[in-house]
Amino acid sequence: MITNTSLEYKGDLYPSKIVSFEHEGDSIFFNTDNKVILKVTILRDSLIRFRFTTKGYFSNDFSYAIDKTQLHGYNFLELTEEETYFQIRTSKVKCKIQKADLRLSIYDLNDLLILEDELGFHWEESYEYGGNIVKMSKSSKDGECFYGLGDKATQMNLKGKRLENFATDQYAYQKDQEPLYKVVPFYIGLHNKQSYGIFFDNTFRTFFDFCQERRNVSSFWAEGGEMNYYFIYGPQMQDVVTTYTDLTGKPELPPLWVLGYHQCKWSYYPESKVKEITSKFRELKIPCDAIYLDIDYMEGFRCFTWNKNYFPDPKRMVAELAEDGFKTIVIIDPGIKIDKDYWVYQEALEKDYFCKRADGPYMKGKVWPGECNFPDYTNPVVREWWAGLFKELISDIGVKGVWNDMNEPAVMEVPNKTFPMDVRHVYDGNPCSHRKAHNIYGTQMARATYHGVKRFTYPKRPFVITRSAYSGAQRYTSSWTGDNVATWEHLWIANIQVQRMSISGMGFTGSDIGGFAEQPTGELYARWIQLGVFHPFCRTHSSGDHGNQEPWAFDEEVINITRKFVSLRYQLLPYLYTMFWQYIEEGIPMLKPLVYYDQEDTQTHYRNDEFIFGNQILVCPILEPNAVGRRMYIPRGEWYNYWTNEFSTGGREVWIDTKFDEIPVFVKAGAIIPKYPVQQYVGELEFDELTLDLYFKNGKEKSVVYEDAQDGYDYKKGRYSFLSFRTIGKEKELIVQLHKEGKYHTPYSKYKINLIGLPFKVTEIEIDNEKIAFDKIAFEENHFLIVDKEFSELHISGE
Ligand code: GLC
């Protein structure tokens, strides 16, 4: 196999035959007669770890990615020995390990082959660095598809592609450009209607080849470290993704305002400019919850300082913005300016917290402030110090969130755009070079930031966003897709990237709406906003080099479209919050590519554009100029056009007409979609009713609504409200059953029910078996009020 490494190729080595094995609890060790050991650990029935060493012993087992709280025990494990292989059986899968060469194959319990080694584990010794280049190849079946891997700017289905994981500051990247900012060495394979996952937990530079080099082979390899991967059995993609997300960890809930709209630019300054922007949002009635300060708020780009000419009294400004409903978020980069009069630099120098070159000097590199040193966030002591630095920003000044950038780490004016590979890192007690620490540097920075922001924000919830990330970063931070460009192609990329991040465990992601580099036309901006409001993180950002990118930088029509779509997002906040809850509770991705939604339908396997927002809303952006509609695939099932309420059945590609102020949006039949009134910011209004849009289906459907105090941690003590609705529609009848959980009392007292698509004229309504007079519930044209939200069954009948 050819590798893309710069290292000299010395030839591959392979395990030889198994000579003995040991069974210890949930693990089995297979020893070969050339010092290779394979350790198989059954973590769950459908989650198996395969770890190889070539040294005759295993080094310390350490991972930043794995959520330690999730790593326990198995339910069932049966080991049998046959003539040519060993077999391990869980209650979901069987794994055969060949005695001759350690090659593996995995089957479901009906003996259907799920995954099989081609050459299996092999390696190349790396004389220059020590250790091995570790490699794995698997046979790939015809028709097999591949998904996942984080922020890749390419088609959803990765079949036929080779991808590289090395966190890189990739300004104005292009379609198919590799590598990008994030590293998620996790993919999903799908064939024979069965999904499985592979998580290759190795922080060195890694590569994945999905049948590009050889048509029937998929492979992955790393420039160092161990062949250490987790196999996850589906068979549904949902099982794979939720197990992976469980393994690498889930976040806490963000405060609800974070799910509102954010406005950003490089940079808004001075204070008067910031206020001009925020006031304009209120004047134009475009909802907005957060305003960002990019690097120019600092004194000479020194983190944790303020430029007092631009911002003479940040505390007062932040408080005044807060009175108008705006939360202030500031950027913090890793590069600390080398300046002996700068307190952060002095402290880090005194305490010896900066990264060092192999021979001792501090790692020095240029970023915005000029020459910088860089904290070693892989040192827990440094992380603790870094967390403490946020005290003034958060506790005293009142900043509500922190934006971590340039943490790939990015270095300017050097060919490799980052640290030299000899830089040393503590790696939490497993000292190593930058070759191993590079890909997790950004995550460890975001982790330290998260702990700091959380400490000083408590009892409220923190907000952190990062550009670089490795698997598991979702426990601490949200992310955005980096420096994109204001082109139609980038709108296409953004749509796929955010979906892909969603099925890669890191769903709390968005793109720079409108594009970071260059300037969008009004039409492109409008089309981007129309997609962006359906992304978990929703922020306009731009470099500022090419003009303004506030909604009013465009014409009246674009302003109106922005208002319409951002307002829709604010109406859908309870729906969005519920999807976030399902993500933190069960690891369910907030956006679902069509293949995730219906893997059995092969029509979905190569779709890129359409996705399911939450569980019941189908969205398809317009990705071309001058569009009067588009072709799209409506997945199987029954759907209502959101704008016209027209009913259609899916499982087919159709043409949908759209006006400039619409994109195709459909709601699943049977769904109940909860809505709040439009607010200019979260918490602006007190309201007494929750709107429930009920889309009739002849059949059954379940819908849920999660709510809580919208901030703080009481939800962890059971103070939340969880409504599960079951709708049962018949020819002349509709029944809605409501089941409630949780100790939180939502402040509103009524439900406003909108009946959509009802095939009969309502003649009678019963609530909890009691017939209700229409005037008591303000019944009018298929909408009415339920005054007592404690009901458990609603019965609507008609003729
Ligand atoms: C990087 C970031 C961008 C930011 C700029 C200045 O390019 O990706 O979002 O505005 O730096 O801080």
UniProtKB/TrEMBL annotation:
The residue ranges of the Glycosyl hydrolase family 31 C-terminal domain are 587-673
CDD domains linked to this entry: GH31_glucosidase_II_MalA, GH31_N
In this protein, which residues make up the domain named Glycoside hydrolase family 31 N-terminal?
A: 38-209
- Report the residue ranges that make up the Glycoside hydrolase family 31 TIM barrel domain in this protein: 251-579
- Sorted alphabetically, which keywords does the UniProt record give? Glycosidase, Glycosyltransferase, Hydrolase, Transferase
Q: Tell me which residues make up the DUF5110 domain.
A: 689-757
Which family does the record claim for this protein?
A: Belongs to the glycosyl hydrolase 31 family.
The protein depicted here goes by the name Oligosaccharide 4-alpha-D-glucosyltransferase
Native species: Flavobacterium bizetiae
Q: List the top taxonomic levels of the source.
A: Bacteria, Pseudomonadati, Bacteroidota, Flavobacteriia, Flavobacteriales
